[in-house]
Amino acid sequence: MENKLEIKFKNQKQSFEILEDEIVVDMHTAKHKLKYNIPLDDIKNNWHILEGSLDRVSMGLSASILFNVILMICLLAITQDAPPLAMEIISYLLFLPFIMSGILYAKRHQEKHISSSKLFYFIYTEKNKNEVDRFIDLIFKKQIDFFKRKYYKVDPVLPYQTQYDRYVWLYSNEYITQNDFEDIKEDLDKFFSFNPSI
Fold first, then answer.
1. How far is CA 76 from CA 79, 91, 92, in A?
2. Residue 36: what are its φ and ψ, rounded to 5°?
3. CA 135, CA 181: separation in Å to the nearest integer?
4. pLDDT tens digit string along 157-198?
């Protein structure tokens, strides 16, 4: 599975890349323009969904352009002595930019937030829902692999109890099976039995 995800929604863009021990986040959204790294051990295995906010800048810009075009048509009609019915139609058209921008930007998106030490969310729409969910699952799988690489070993420097607590933590979070736990505990016991001075 690919370790990268890029999301584009209107004029917003997010990209994520899973590295060996961190995730690179690059956001250019209506609310944030950020680039940073999040260590895998700072990510919590829970999430929530919030309603995304409207991109007010784009909405205002679209309404302004459309309003100015219609206003120029209105001025042209006045200078060319247009009939009264045409002026009435043009005055109704002046409301069109606000209606159109409301319709265009009424489609809001959701944001799927993952608990972390830093801001970590995905633009979540019907179109990219499955792709985002697969990528989040991949993040949690990579995180488990990371924890196994980091803690599932006998370290000759660390004290017995510290290592044992790490194995219990791995097991209680279901990152390793009971057989794995018993195997590594047995290896740890052998190591410390063989080297009692440690």
1. 5, 13, 16
2. -160, 175
3. 28
4. 899 999 999 999 999 988 999 999 999 999 988 888 876 554
> Which residue, 33, 36, 20, 51, is CA-closest to 123?
51
- Is the separation of the CB atoms in 124 and 112 below 8 Å? yes
pLDDT in tens, 53-90: 555 666 677 667 777 777 777 777 778 777 777 777 77
CATH 2.60.40 fits 8-53+109-148, yes or no: no
From residue 138, how far is each of 34, 176, 187 by CA, in Å? 23, 17, 30
**Whole-angstrom distance, CA of residue 75 vs CA of residue 86:** 12
CA distance 53 to 56: 9
Question: 6 forms bridges with which residues in the sheet?
Answer: 15
Structural domain boundaries of the chain?
8-53+109-148, 56-105, 152-194
* Amino acid identity for residue 130 in this structure: N
